[in-house]
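Tip: read the tokens left to right.
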């Protein structure tokens, strides 16, 4: 039987590039990206810094589409938080992560 974990959703506007989304260590389990409809878009998620940290995920989104993607296995660990370094032609990004606002969480989050 699979172990259940608490999931938390965090939304950020596509205009908020070069900003921190989650400042604590966390595992990204899934992501939803909404295009703004003006052409193909792209997002980049970094850890360490919003302007030159280690790029851990780059995703493209077709114009006028919404991408919903579940990451396999344990997802991607962002050891120093999640930073949105690039958001081009995107309305919003929603991250689905392990719960990070509760007690007894560690950098491994499960």
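Filled-in amino acids:
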């Amino acid at each position: 039987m699979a172990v259940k974990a608490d999931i938390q959703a965090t939304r950020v506007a596509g205009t908020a590039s070069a900003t921190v989304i989650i400042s604590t260590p966390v595992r990204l389990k899934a992501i939803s990206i909404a295009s703004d409809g003006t052409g193909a878009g792209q997002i980049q998620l970094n850890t360490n810094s919003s302007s030159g940290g280690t790029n851990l995920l780059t995703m493209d989104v077709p114009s006028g589409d919404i991408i919903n993607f579940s990451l396999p296995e344990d997802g991607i660990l962002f050891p120093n938080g999640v930073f949105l370094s690039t958001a081009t032609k995107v309305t919003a990004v929603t991250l689905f992560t392990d719960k990070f606002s509760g007690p007894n969480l560690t950098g491994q989050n499960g």
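The CA atoms of residues 44 and 86 lie 5 Å apart. The chain is about 0% helix and 55% strand.
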